[in-house]
Amino acid sequence: MTKWWELDPARWEREQQALEAAGITFEVDEGARSKGRLTLNLTKLWDGQPLRLVAHYPFNYPFANPMVVAPTLDLARHQTPGSKQLCMLRRNGEDWKPATDTLSSLIDQQLPRVFAGQPGQPEEDLNGKEAEPVTAFLHPQQGSFVGFPAFDISTLPDKGTFKIGLVQLNPLRGTVIEVLDQQGRVLFSSEARSRENFTKRPIVEGRWVKLAERPKVGDANDFLKLAAESDANLSRPAWKPLPNTDVRIDLLALLFADELTWKGAEGNAIVVSRSIGNKTKTVGSTDRALHRVELESRTNYFRRDPTAEGLQKGCVSLVGTGSIGSPAAKWLAQAGIGELRLFDHDVLDAGNAIRWELGRDYAGHHKVTVLHAVLSENFPYTTVVPTTLRIGDASSDDMAWLDKAYEGLVNGVTCLFDASASIGVSNYLSAFARHQGIPHVWMHASNGGWAGLVGRASGKPEDFCWMCHLYYLDDQDAEVKIPKLRSAPESAEVQPAGCLDPTFVGAQVDLSEVSLMGVRVVMDEVLVHVGAQPATQYDWNVAVVDLRDEAGRPQLPKWTPYKLPRHAKCTNH
Length: 573
Ligand SMILES: [Zn+2]
Known about the structure:
By secondary structure, the chain is of the alpha/beta class. The protein folds into 3 domains: about 5-130, Ubiquitin Conjugating Enzyme (Roll), CATH 3.10.110.10; about 135-295, no CATH class; about 305-560, Rossmann fold. It has helices at about 5, 10-20, 30-35, 105-115, 220-230, 300, 325-335, 365-380, 400-410, 425-435, 465-475, 510-530, and strands spanning about 25-30, 40-45, 50-55, 65-70, 145-150, 160-170, 175-180, 185-190, 205-210, 240, 250-260, 265-275, 285-290, 295, 315-320, 340-345, 385-390, 415-420, 440-445, 450-455, 540-550, 555-560. Strands 5, 6, 7, 8, 9, 10, 11, 12, 13 and 14 form a 10-stranded mixed sheet that branches. Strands 17-16-15-18-19-20-21-22 form an 8-stranded mixed sheet, with helices on both faces. β16, α8 and β17 (about 385-390) form a beta-alpha-beta unit. The chain binds zinc ion.
């Protein structure tokens, strides 16, 4: 590719003139340039003294700002420890103006701010109140991950042990499930994983030590040394064997107060390990590694969407985990519904992956089993309960099991969510929800994914119900009606090879439009029901989305809301 300074020589000329005009002397690093990188060695007078700077232009200059390094400075803020890069602009350089800014203007305007932004200086928060935890500047092993329970440093004793459930050794992946004191008492534990998650995987003991102050940036060797300085016992490895391997590992955690929020002093952790065994190349040599740590808690999870925290108190039964139900299951778990009960009898076909939440890898399994496994693993703050149930099937004689399964549909449930795409099942569910007084949301899509419908009912006997919505759909001559959903012609139905029934045609992207709205309504119901929200955010009880126009041409998804009273002919009232 042509380099930017060759593509736009006038721009490069302007850069140089601006530096000269500002009295910044510079020379091009010819070694770097021969490799295609434009790097300048600069000298600028600062407080009457020459200050040495190095500037690297990005590949796509001027669309991103140059990176400026101050090798001789050692600043407490706004400089990356180790690389010595100055943080002159807000994260990702969002203040950079490609048309007018130059390296010279960047230095002239931002360098004084970097100095004014040091601790105790008036503009310490120049880049916004951004915390700078030391762990943000470390270089842990690629692909490693240790989920560490967020903790209160102020009540922490000096040292102890921890239990880590391991999923993978190299790179290390796992979760610290418990942190204990020296007497073996649990001080705090993970909210994301428990011992039950590791019944088939090793749980290994490690040791931790509290540091008097936050450490400087370093690597695995630096932190192993620091741990040994803090507690001499840690200089000797306490090897733990890993089952079914000849690998032995020694895991150490350094716990300390760090700035996780602006000027805060919260508990932070660094995890390092040394190991010997089958993957080390030289006999007797030890692998040392620094692992990526993330502090985990429910609170941390919901920090990115505080309004969703109320969902933790909700319980949703979702019936039908097919094309529109499976993405809904994922979104509800992701949003943080406290308990999600999934009901379906179907097994996933590999060919069905074209419109299912997950792909071919899960073919042959019950859909609810797959969703339970994947969603529980990935969204630990939602309890997923799978039930392989075919509603209406009379072939089973295990009445005790059936009793429990059917009760699970409504017992303790905040909202019954019907994605069954079966009129018989929907009829039953609506009657059951009304009988129990439970809010009920249903959704379905038309053939071809041309249109979809989301409806909701309060569950109160006197209110609009699912059956009312059928009456509104049924009588197309009535004054008040829900227009018949647009759908692909019947000939568009296909019978995939090996299937007994024809299946409908439709793309996941179109069907998901319906699922999304269904999920929003369910979340709204739950938030109202648990008292996290005073009233519903929606003033309709049926909404229809059209993804095609009258001629069957694709169009922007167009929602039409209907605010319907209960239907005069509905026999439910
Ligand atoms: Zn009704």
